[in-house]
Amino acid sequence: MLKKYFSRGETEAGCDEAGRGCLAGPVFAAAVILPKKINGALKKLDDSKKLSDKERRVLRVVIEGEALAWNVASCSHEDIDSINILNASFLSMNRAVEKLSVQPQLLLIDGNRFRTHLDIPFQCIVKGDTKFMPIAAASILAKTYRDDFMLELHEHFPHYQWNKNKGYATESHRRAILEFGFAPFHRKSFHIREEQFMMEF
Predict the structure, then answer these.
(1) 3-state secondary structure of 119
(2) Going residue by residue through the chain (201 aa), what tens digit of pLDDT does each one get?
């Protein structure tokens, strides 16, 4: 079972992002403040990558209903190209925290680095989504909301199979780029030379 908190007695917000390694689409981030007493389905929280899509979506409803506060934010592919993916990930997490209805006293950040303009202490935790419930909850929200966005984009750009790969660099996705070129939602700063694509096939 994941840990409920990092520091007893403080209001902690778990923060995580989704879509950092994709070739297309925005990066999403979530911030979640869970109640001190964890009951029922919240005990099933885990890293979103370890859960099925169905499990994530069931838990999303639970998180949104049981959390003291939660919010999801994003940075577009244009933002990513402008400030790079690392800074866009930081910015999306900052945006998610800013809109929380409850002010956290400590941020639990998944990863080993973070930058913020907010006057809130933070703790970076490598693989935090496998260790702390608030971060796991944030990972589930970020993942499912980003997946929903990519499913909607798929309706307009079906060639790239974003309904299946969600923008990640799968073989079918890269082949589609070679055949159809780049879509408006591809990250220009992530473009790979055609020669590199061809060497892998």
Answers:
(1) coil
(2) 899 999 988 999 999 999 999 999 999 999 999 998 888 889 999 999 999 999 999 999 999 999 999 999 999 999 999 999 999 999 999 999 999 999 999 999 999 999 999 999 999 999 999 999 999 999 999 999 999 999 999 999 999 999 999 999 999 999 999 999 999 999 998 765 554 554 444
Q: CA-to-CA distance for 198 and 201, rounded, in angstroms?
A: 5
**Burial of 49 from C-beta contacts in 10 A (0-12 / 13-18 / 19+):** exposed
What's the CA angle centered on 182, arms 52 and 144, to 5 degrees? 20
How much is the pTM? Answer: 0.93
The strand ranges marked E within the chain are 12-18, 27-33, 69-75, 106-110, 122-125
Q: Among residues 35, 77, 55, 79, which one has the least CA distance to residue 139?
A: 55
| H or E stretch covering 144 | helix 133-156
